[in-house]
Amino acid sequence: MIFSREFRMMAQEGHLASASLLAGFEALTKLNYDKPGTVYLSLFHLATGLERILKIAFVLDYKAKNRLASPSDRQLKELGHSITDIYTTLHTIAGTYSITNGWFTEHTEHCEVLRTLSEFARFSRYYNLDQLVSGRDSPDPLTRWFSVHMKIAYATISKAQLNGIMERARNHCEAHGLLGWEMGPTGQWDLNVDVIYQLEIARVSRGHCVWTIIQILEPIYRLIEHLENKIHQIEMLVDGKSSTTPYMTEFFPFCLTNRSVAIRRKSWTTLFHIAGRV
User: Fold this and answer.
1) Dihedral angle, C-alpha 3, 4, 5, 10, nearest 10 °
2) pTM of structure
């Protein structure tokens, strides 16, 4: 098998997207709203990885429909950097191949995740500097992500667990005389007990955030799997000797992680290791 330059570029892009997503998962498992850097780290990795895996699927679709030709620079630029727009485009493409399960539409936590990461990638990653120099009106990524995190948490944590967390928060505040107010992760002044309650809910639900993103990735993985097979069939018909595209799904086996593993796993970056020269 002869590995072309195009093959190597696709492989390197697969490495980059995979490493970014896994780093994002691991950062989520360590996320601490008292340490804002951990939130930014998660958003940077996840936004980068998600945009890149989406664009990998777009490139594969183009190659499958154009006898292995790659899209032009202009076509890729026209696709843009909006994660939500690219996701919608791929949802439509997937429909043409009857890959219709697992895609998310409005009014779900999953779409809120997509919107938040899209906002961060395009605008909010410079929020702090923008506020310093111009006061531009844009959403604070810290409070924006916390809001999404809470939607995921309340959709997955039982009422009994929530009541238990509140009881522990009250006991902690009474034991330590924390009966005042503080700036909480919502970006507003809240009672100490409410802030402690919010932070504990966030802590116990970090794994559920990882699972939510894996649910977003699963249909994208299925689309990539379908497209890579179509491309390899075309390559065999052309000459059967050279390949322009790796098996891209080999970079993303974690997209098939089940719920219980996704929620509990803490280490992601060392779990899947793909190496070697091509």
Assistant:
1) -70
2) 0.93
| Cα torsion 162, 168, 169, 171: sign | positive
Domain ranges of the chain: 2-142+206-264, 158-204
What percentage of residues in the chain have a pLDDT greater than 70?
95
The pair of three-digit structure tokens given for residue 99, joined into one six-digit string: 């890959």
Segment 119-162, tens digit of pLDDT: 998 887 777 777 778 766 677 899 999 999 999 999 999 999 99
Calculate the dihedral angle through the C-alpha atoms of 111, 112, 115, 119, rounding to the nearest 10 degrees. -170
Residue pair 13/247 in contact by the 8 Å Cβ criterion: no
* Token couple for 226: 């379908």
Candidates 10, 59, 9, 12; CA nearest to 274 is 12
Phi, psi of 70 (to 5 degrees): -90, 155
How are beta strands 2-3 and 242-243 bridged, if at all? parallel
